[in-house]
């Protein structure tokens, strides 16, 4: 265990003070005098260190010193001591003794009945796993993956700082009353990952930790019943045993009745705000329908169900989200969002076209690393708002009447840009003039959207009340009340602004990339080379690699990713010149680039071979055939990654 110098000095001082309090020096002198009289042999002139230690142990001095030291055996990280009420308690290292912490420990799970018949995994066997994610007051944690079982062995400890403001200010120690007023829950998200690395959202749970404030010791144990998601939100998914402990223990213990009353008041306040907003929304909707009859068929969505089956205003799914140093520009943010997988919420039995509406809280979406188009659009809109753009989520349809959501930004010059969150493509909107002469030139829309019913962000909701909801005919002058019916910003803010209600999920920060791109690229490239060699061996073909040609392919892959991020192509001339130099006269070069959102080599290789161009390269026959493969992994926040692979070959042309 290593401690910073200031902590080491503090620890020494604590031990010194404790020994003085016990009058340890006087006790040692008495033991020494007694030992010299009774135990010192006539032929020896001095006592060894071992003799003194044995004497101290025999007379119980060591036990007396240790009996006031209380060690928490469950803590899995380095510790240091702090003195309180004549007692030394062991706290986690990196803990500021002037701050208040909540130590949340998961002590295992039970009753995950879906995995009742799950066989015990053999050592080294790949199996499905559970991972628990936590978010509390801008802090995020995750557990180690454990094998899925009826009683999963989830054993983890998480140290959560309760008071985040004024870091380093010792006067800000949160007392019991302050902690009672902190209504931020601990958001728990349980994710299952199967053997093919596909993720499934098992449960999303909001834990009110304030029960620990009524515990005399500042520590309590609880059993958390996790429910399923979507259509299974009323069904128990499993139970997690937990313990909650405050560091340092509060000097004031609150009555359980006080905590119950506080929760009840918060619920009543939230319920009243939600009731008033619902009354307002109903009146607003009636007024909207009275404007013109066509409004009844427009796709106007005021509420949406989250993963727990709770109806929330759609504006509450959008927040101003700043990514710090993790994302450098709005276009890079769009690229990041597009790298998160697309998955529609399934319906048991496949009813309703196999799709169930389910908008996810941001933490559940990020932990699962995939979601529906609504999840992508609300995340992209939040990030664009963080970059200072005037961004909105659009709800409308694509061709064939399929419901869809995308993002729109309004420039200061009234330029309207559509952002497709699933692909990071951008489209400029130019409205068609329906009153123009028949032969007058009209702009041809390039976007894949047909209609728009409403737009919204974190503080505005507007419904399209123009004669037609066809996107190519729509104008986006939000100040024109004959074109857009606007909800009261005050009404929206009463239930959607941060801290307005206790039912709003807290906004989690983005986490940085979890992989090292160079190492991941090298590993995946080695696996790809092996698969190519094995495939050619099955065909009776030898494989000779051209390492220089493989390296030359790097610039092309970097240019492809840069183009996806910025929309600008560059570096192609240098790549073409390098290839010409690497391929001798009389030889033919063929290359095939392909893009993936995962790092599974076998899946990627199988997908690549479905293309006849790639198959032609990998199975190339001829004179002086040389093969090359290059892999580049580009890391983004939240474990998202863009994987580019290029297969290439060169061979001498023989007529």
From TrEMBL:
InterPro entries: CEP76, CEP76-C2, CEP76_C, CEP76_N, CEPT76/DRC7_peptidase-like_dom, Papain-like_cys_pep_sf. Residues 517-652 form the Centrosomal protein of 76 kDa C-terminal domain. The keyword ATP-binding does not apply. Residues 94-251 form the CEP76 C2 domain. Keywords: Cytoplasm, Cytoskeleton. Its main location: cytoplasm. PANTHER family: CENTROSOMAL PROTEIN OF 76 KDA. This is Centrosomal protein of 76 kDa. It comes from Salmo trutta. The gene is CEP76.
